[in-house]
Amino acid sequence: MFARLLTEPGLGGLIVLAALVLCLSFYGSLILWIARARPTEEATQAEGWEPHYEHTGRVHP
Amino acid sequence: MPRWGMVIDLDKCTACQACTVACRAENNVSFAGLNGYRRGRAIFWNTVIGRVEGEFPEVQGIFIPMPCMHCDHPPCVKVCPVGATYQDEEGRVLQRYERCIGCRMCMQACPYNRRYFNWRVQEWPDTFALYRNPDPETQPRPKGVVEKCTFCVQRLRKAREEGRPIGSDYPDGVVPACVETCTGGARYFGDLDDPESIVSRLARSPRAFRLQEELGTEPKVYYLRPGQWEPET
Amino acid sequence: MERRNEPVDPRLIQPILRTGAGYYLLAAFLSAVVAAGLYVWIRQLRLGLAVTGMNHPVYWGLYITNFVFFIGISHAGTLISAILRVTGAEWRRPITRAAEAITVFALIVGAAQVIIDMGRPDRILNVIAYGRFQSPLLWDVTSITVYLLGSITYLYLPLIPDMAILRDNLPADAPAWRRRLYTLLALGWHGGPEQRRRLERAVGVMAVLIIPIAVSVHTVVSWIFAMTLRPMWHSTIFGPYFVIGAIYSGIATILIAMAVIRKVFHLEAYLKPLHFRYLGMLLITFNALWFYFTFAEYLTTGYGGVPHEMRVFNAKLSGEYQAAFWAMVFSMAVAFVILLLPHLPAPRRVRLPAFRPGYALATAGTALAVALVMVSQNVSGATQAGLAPSPALTRLLTWLLVVLLLGFGVSVLPVLRRNIVVGTVIAAFLVDLGMWLERFTIVVPTETRPMLEGYTIGIYHPTATEWILTAASFAGFALLYVIFVKLFPIISIWEVQEAEEVIPQMVEKVKGYLPGV
Q1: What's the confidence (pLDDT) of residue C205?
Q2: How many folded domains does chain C comprise?
Q3: How distant is the alpha carbon of residue B59 from its chain centre?
Q4: DSSP string covering C441-456
Q5: Count of beta carbons in the 10 Å neighbourhood of residue C465
Q6: Does a structural domain hold residue C41?
Q7: Which of C400, C259, C462, C432 has its CA nearest to residue C335?
Q8: Please, which residues have CB within 8 angstroms of residue C304's CB and are 6 or more apart in sequence?
Q9: What proportion of chain C, given as a percentage, has pLDDT over 70?
Q10: How near does any CA of chain B get to the CA of A16, in Å?
Q11: What ipTM does this complex have?
């Protein structure tokens, strides 16, 4: 019976599509999970990690 | 349902290769030309391979006509990603030209190298136009797809439509072109599931063997070992 | 979390903002090669695969070789990023992005090889519509899809904070599309503690997940061959063998990429000799592993002596594929020696010769001349007329070539030993060359020896179309990379900066290993 599953034309395609959808959902959800993180109240002050690039007008090595 | 098989008597085969030519005509197998042949592009649904055995002076030439083996456990069907190659209810391994994606995986899987690829659009010399087969099932295959021997599936289809018998058991039984043409009467075709058919009886002969049986592909083309000739019963 | 106000090193951003003439020249050159590839590919679509050297029984050739090769080097990202991240190897920080980029682009170019090789690429959707999961090709499609999507995610996630850095720090004269691009890709990153925690978690999960996915990819690619019954393909070792080979060529490719980036963008402060040293140690480890697997495979085959396998075996070792086979072995062996050199104790009694440019040039020049003579003998009209070069002469010239190359090697030994970056990168080139040859010697010789005796031996001469498409594939890969470094920081800015924060944790960790704590 399981063999039938593997040999049937079209079912393989469904498996590929299922893998595709699973991946997109899982990886997508990871990305969204990060994007949706809310900054805490103190984020505007000391907390939070944002490197600051000091622009000197010219970029020198 | 019949299970179609073939028997080739190597004692009767003269290696004349009429089978290869007849197959070509019946199935509109394309021509590669001398250049194409040299480059390994020629297509032979039926081919005759030659082998030299022994050392001089005890040399023997063995010639083996080979159509597709139409295996009962076809490795080509196993690996086809799209089911373009498939086994029908009568045991034939056939090809859906309109579905084939030309990946050539089936060709790698076949341990008999009996599958061919259309490296370019099919071509025939003008003279061939005189005897092209008009049957729709033998029409030119497009470039980029795999093709091979079909046990002349179109002949058997026509035979059923016209109510004619099929197989070497009948004096005017419809058989594949190679079997019909064989000048030595070496080839037989019939139903392996009918224990009384000539192919079944010959397949049970002590002279019978199949190519690369140890691989478990269960080919349905049997060969009768050359040597002592036995009259048919 | 401390707020960090330290300035970002301009060297890390300069490649993005400043473009020299050299860049445009390189991009133009690569584009030209890719265009040539496109031209011959379209021609191939019109005329059919007859424009290649493939035939009956050599149904697969350079395209499949390249497919396996590119999917192989895609393991660069997985090894560096994922395994080193999971094992807490902090030295990986400046390398991760370059490695992850290799993975994504190698997968794309690798998948393209399949399209190029198919007889009917217009029917590719049949694989979905009629897909049969019994076929190894479907396993391939599934595995590579999951890996490609995973690699893109794994490249993108650690890119987010860098996108925010760029978003917030672009100079006023930067083009508007850049600002929009970085704002979009930064996903509103604000760097709050919760967000940082989530990012670390997500990256950690991906790092662990991507390792078995990557292993499955090259295992499944090997099974395209191993699931057939062909001699020297139908081998149980193929799965692990291909995975080892893939990681091996991946490390080599990341080394080459690192060396180029380091030189071109003056990033010596970030890509240090120690990085080359550590990757070099990984490379020599995988070199040894590769030799082990190769030796096991050939010993088993040769000792068994099964006739149809021996025909292929002999074709590789002493037949018409011996050049490719022994060049492969030689490349890997020389790479091993070069990689070993820096780790050998300094000679006390034996003094290595000083680098003599004269000797190096003389031996290299003579070797090149000999090689040209040998090659010309094989393609000259004399050969086509049936007058093959005498085997004795060929053998003599081959040994002369080997001796000259060894002489050259000895004369440059001091350089290789002193300069670990140069040595390791030369070894990496040899490894990638050897691995390409390995894929070739796996794919083609088996096809030329059909199992059934009586078939004539197959012949395969790749045509210009195939070579041009090969070159275009490499150029396409390089071009994607070149575009990438123009858009994104090739060294992960935040991960390198984060290293500072990690130092106290590491001190605590090592203390924890010691007794009495």
Answers
A1: 95
A2: 2
A3: 28
A4: HHHHHHHHS-SSBTBP
A5: 23
A6: yes
A7: C432
A8: none
A9: 93
A10: 12
A11: 0.93
Confidence of residue C46 (pLDDT cuts 50, 70, 90): very high
For residue B86, what are the β-bridge partners?
B94
Q: What SS3 state is found at B187?
A: strand
State the smallest CA–CA distance between residue B184 and chain A in angstroms: 41
Q: Which residue has the higher pLDDT, C212 or C419?
A: C212
- Which residue of C50, C126, C229 is in closest CB contact with B82? C126
CB–CB contact C48 B82 (8 Å): no
Closest chain A residue by Cα to residue C498: A49
Output the pLDDT for position B231. 64
> Within an 8 Å CB–CB cutoff, is residue C124 touching chain B?
yes
Per-residue model confidence as pLDDT tens digits over B82-102: 999 999 999 999 999 999 999
Note whether C309 and C208 are same-domain residues. Answer: no
Residue of C nearest to B98 (CA): C123
SS3 label, residue C66: helix
Q: Which alpha helices (H) appear in B166-220, and where do they start and end?
A: 177-181, 198-203
Instruction: Give the pLDDT of residue C369.
Output: 84
State whether C177 and C292 are in the same domain. Answer: no
- Which residues in chain C have Cβ-Cβ distances shorter than 8 Å to A21? none
Question: Does residue C469 sit in the same domain as residue C432?
Answer: no
Q: Give me B228's structure tokens.
A: 């002592």
Q: Is residue C54 part of a domain?
A: yes
Q: Which residue range forms the structural domain that includes residue B174?
A: 4-224
Cis amide prior to B74 (ω within 30 degrees) = no
CB count within 10 Å of CB C338 equals 26
Q: Is the pLDDT of residue C102 over 80?
A: yes
B102 inside domain: yes
Q: What is the extent of the structural domain holding C423?
A: 287-460
The per-residue pLDDT of chain B, averaged, comes to 94
Bridge partners, residue B87, by sequence: B93
Residue B233 lies in a domain: no
| Residue B166 · residue B156 · CB < 8 Å | yes
Q: Which residue of A has its CA nearest to C13?
A: A59
| Element spanning B7, H or E | strand B4-9
Give the type of residue at C368.
L
Residue C241 above 60 pLDDT?
yes
CA–CA dist C128, B6 (Å, integer): 36
pTM here is 0.92
**Same domain? C337 vs C302:** yes
Q: Which helix (H) or strand (E) holds A41?
A: none
Q: Which two tokens stand for residue C40?
A: 């011959």
What is the pairing mode between strands B187-191 and B4-9?
antiparallel
> At a CB cut-off of 8 Å and minimum separation 6, what does B21 contact?
B181
Q: Cα–Cα distance between A52 and C5 in angstroms, integer?
A: 5
Q: Please name the member of C138, C187, C497 whose beta carbon is closest to the beta carbon of A34.
A: C187
pLDDT score for C40: 98
**Matching residue, tokens 């899982």:** A26
Q: What is the CATH number of the domain that holds B215?
A: 3.30.70.20
At B54-85, the pLDDT tens digits run 888 888 888 999 999 999 999 999 999 999 99
Same domain, C163 and C195: yes
Most confident of A23-37, C79-93, C498-512: A23-37
Who's near A17: CB < 8 A, 6+ residues apart?
Answer: C128
Residues C347 and C383 in one domain: yes
Question: How many whole angstroms separate alpha carbon C168 and alpha carbon C180?
Answer: 11
Q: Cα(B85)–Cα(B70) distance, rounded to whole angstroms?
A: 11
User: Alpha-carbon distance C26 to C480, whole Å?
Assistant: 12
| Distance, CA of B30 to CA of B118 (rounded, Å) | 9
What percent of chain C has a predicted confidence (pLDDT) above 90? 72
Nearest CA among C431, C422, C265 for reference residue C334: C431
Total Cβ atoms within 10 A of residue B121: 15
Contact B24, B178 (CB under 8 A): no
Helix (H) or strand (E) holding A56: none
Give me the count of residues in chain C.
517
Q: Which two tokens stand for residue C435?
A: 């691995």
